[in-house]
């Protein structure tokens, strides 16, 4: 699943999810704000959705829900901190190597322009890196 926004100049990929991960707009589900992001399936997949009212009722159905929700949001926050750190402190090559190490399957399943956008680089930069670096 690709999470992205279309600006007048280009599409910006925020995240590409692999199997077993959640995809959400936290501001939308937690603060009732209109979503900023689009979600696009890039491969055949099963996608489960939940309505806001059902989400709000999970605490009544699952006694540990509020603790699990807190852990989930903390994990999302930590994950975003790591992404920001990578974008601000790593070179394009380091970001490429890091993503390849984390999720090598993405490089066979996802169009390169989406990966480049997610890593904060132009597709041409990613192409040059792929030619130069052999894993």
Radius of gyration: 17 Å
Give the helix/strand class: mainly alpha
Count of DSSP E strands?
A: 3
Main beta sheet: strand number and arrangement? 3 strands, antiparallel
What distance separates the N and C termini?
25 Å
- DSSP helical segment count: 7
| Range of strand content | 5-15%
Characterization of this structure:
- The chain is elongated.
- A three-stranded antiparallel sheet has the order 2-1-3.
- The chain is mainly α and 135 residues long.
- Helix 6 crosses helix 7.
- The two termini are 25 Å apart.
- It has one domain.
- It comes from Adhaeribacter arboris.
- This is Crp/Fnr family transcriptional regulator.
- InterPro entries: cNMP-bd_dom_sf, RmlC-like_jellyroll.
What's the arrangement of secondary structure elements?
Blueprint: E1 2-6, E2 11-16, H1 26-31, E3 38-40, H2 52-61, H3 65-89, H4 92-102, H5 106-109, H6 112-118, H7 123-132
Antiparallel strand pairs: 1-2, 1-3
Helix pairs in contact: 6-7
